[in-house]
Write a structure and sequence with these properties.
single chain, mainly alpha, 11 helices, flat
């Protein structure tokens, strides 16, 4: 089968097993720019961890990969792609990942900031520690609101399972958590 066929399988198949099979076939043709681009785009576009792991095992040793991910992180693309490009840089052990993570903590996009915050603990130097402390202190309200809203949603789901039981104080608290979050 042709390289174009495997790229189509990789980018559009709804089945994870078919996408993983396409990665194995495309690995042999990695030097081709179109193949490298398709693999990198899939790495920043997927939410399937096994697929990401297979892609990163292939891409991490190619010098073009770091440049691709840096371009996505620092670009104007969709949040989810920028966030996953940052994560992929960390997964590949890039030397530039630390700088990108620290930049990500100051990114205007909340999704990128959260991805950076979850990976800043990979770095134990004082600058990284201070950047994370500053990030957390300046966003404390956001995290508290988010946590209260998530707790309220979980309690609401749990209480729905208790048919016929009324907890008016709890119901009032859940409603308040929903208002605070929204």
């Amino acid at each position: 089968m042709s390289t174009k066929h495997w790229i189509r399988q990789l980018r559009s198949s709804p089945h994870l097993s078919e996408r993983l099979r396409a990665v194995r076939h495309l690995q042999e043709t990695l030097p081709q720019p179109a193949v490298h681009t398709a693999l990198c785009l899939t790495a920043v576009d997927t939410d399937h961890q096994p697929l990401r792991a297979a892609l990163m095992a292939i891409l991490k040793n190619d010098p073009r990969t770091e440049a691709f991910f840096l371009g996505v992180v620092r670009g104007e693309g969709p949040t989810y792609m920028r966030k996953w490009a940052l994560v992929d840089l960390c997964l590949m052990g890039s030397e530039r990942a630390r700088a990108v993570v620290l930049e990500g903590l100051r990114d205007p996009d909340e999704g990128v900031r959260r991805a950076a915050a979850s990976h800043v603990t990979l770095y134990t130097d004082e600058e990284a520690r201070q950047a994370f402390i500053h990030y957390f202190q300046t966003r404390r309200e956001v995290y508290m609101r988010d946590a209260a809203g998530r707790l309220g949603m979980r309690l609401r789901r749990w209480l729905k399972g208790l048919k016929g039981v009324r907890f008016s104080p709890v119901s009032a608290s859940l409603e308040e958590a929903g208002r605070v979050r929204g």
